[in-house]
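Sorry, can you check?
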Amino acid sequence: MSINLSRFAAPAAAMSLAVAFAAPASAQQAQQAPTWAKICSKVGETDICNVQYSIVTNTGQLVTGVNLLQSKGATSRRIFQVAVPSGRYIPEGIKVKIDNGKENTLPYSLCLPDRCLAEIPLSEGLVKALKGGGEVTLTSTNFRAQKNPVKVSLNGFTASFDGPPLKRDEVQNRNQKIGEELKRKAKETADKLKAAQEAAKSGN
């Protein structure tokens, strides 16, 4: 299934608003497992919901994050946002392809020290395409002109998008478990490195 994303170029105001809405979620994403989840909060007179998916390394560094942001109230916006590590080649944008459909380009809106953000308005057509797909491939190009494709499973997307948001205690428990898992993986990596160093010393 394919959808033409290029005609949904986001205005600067919408981009700025999306970054502001995504800031709390982006900070949180470094502690999230790669599963779809809906998290809602209230900022002033605006209700904001973010359906998000994040892939991180064992040390918690962002690989790719996807945010579907919707706000109601004083401010009304619907934004589809992708976050990738910094050091990207900006003119290339982020290529988006659902299953074997047409590849479209998501333009970058902002680069921060630890990530670059690309976004467009979230249309009903895009939501429908995501719901009907099996996976979405997001490809960014780094400053060495190397393409970095990342596949994001759409399993569980529809349930998260249409279902209720996680409760506060569910979010806290989820983050705690993921934080513990990241610590465990980091310790395993450190232990393996230490063992390799000891083995190298013994070999000398």
